[in-house]
Amino acid sequence: MDTEMLYELKDKILMFLQKMKGKNGFYRYSLSGDLYDENIHWGLGNSIFALRLYYMINSLENKDLNDIYNVVISYQRPNGYIYDDYLHRKTLSMGKILSSIKNLRLRNLFREKEKRAETRQSFSSLFMIRKKPPIPFYDFPKSEASIEKYLSTLNWNKPWDAGSHFSILIFFLFNMKRFYPRYFDYDANELINYALGWINEIQNDDGSWYIGNTTSNQKINGAMKILTGLNVTSEPINNPEKLIDLSLRTINDSQACDNFNIVYVLYNCSKQINFAYRQDEIERFFEDRLRLYQKYYFKDIGGFSFHPNKSNESYYGAKITKGLCEPDIHGTMLFTWGISLISEVLGINKEIGLKPFIP
Predict the structure, then answer these.
(1) Taking a C-beta distance cutoff of 8 angstroms, is the pair 2, 35 a contact?
(2) How far from 155 is each of 13, 188, 225, CA to CA, in Å?
(3) What is the reported pLDDT for 92?
(4) Residues in a beta bridge with 34
(5) Residue 206 above 80 pLDDT?
(6) Interhelix angle for 112-128 vs 44-56, to 10°?
(7) At what angle do helices 159-179 and 216-232 cross, to 10 degrees?
(8) What whole-number distance in Å separates Cα of residue 78 and Cα of residue 261?
């Protein structure tokens, strides 16, 4: 992206959000290619992405904030889960049902992992604006034995998925006790330290967390998820230099998530050591990353697409758009977040005026 566009980005993102806005806190996922409209109760993720964008460009109006808050809590269940049931039902097929029953994987059938991930995303976004859902979330391990079982049953050969659920665990252990203290009596520090000790046992010589053989992209994407968990409690990163080395020799740029994950890893590792290791290379990497972002940017509309010149088609496995050549709110949130981190490293964050957040 050229320098001029960086300085216009706040105004462009606000313009994009106005184009995406529906009624009462609803936001479209893509500019014109959504398969569903606001008359159906769907779009939880869309509204959360909008909230994060408003936060990053420091443009939270009370009405927008309250409308989005009401949308998010409209998805909350009596057990505290917050998820888009319409989209989850769209992923079911007879083949998946029969396979889950045959293999006794009923939690897969009911999309437990995806629902936890959406719940965490919803809680963290509301905490970001100093609001909280009316019902706490209960369904997470609250003893050392249950944490051991939870972490050991994750597939650490696919650390992007496994790391995500480590992060979810840390998030809820820390924040449920913090925001809903009268509902929980576990020792948060003790259990978080136990989980951190478990994860440190599987950290490899390259700085990333996995078991067995996996790809470099999985290592980077998994590390990003682990770091989001460490950031919840401001836990330091072990061997940040190793993760910097891994990141700088890895190509991770196929779509918005990959592009963001490697930026997040480099930013957090470099910041922890006061930008004192391979800093010139990191800055060149980030400058190249900004140029790469041009493939995803729609200057006249003001948003980014998830894929180069193409909006994302699926969200949590459900097909939701036609995949047109246009921006979407998911890609826009991720690229804006990445630019907010890059601009800090390059020393232009005050001029651009973007504010990153901790997920």
Answers:
(1) no
(2) 37, 25, 14
(3) 59
(4) 321
(5) yes
(6) 30
(7) 10
(8) 33
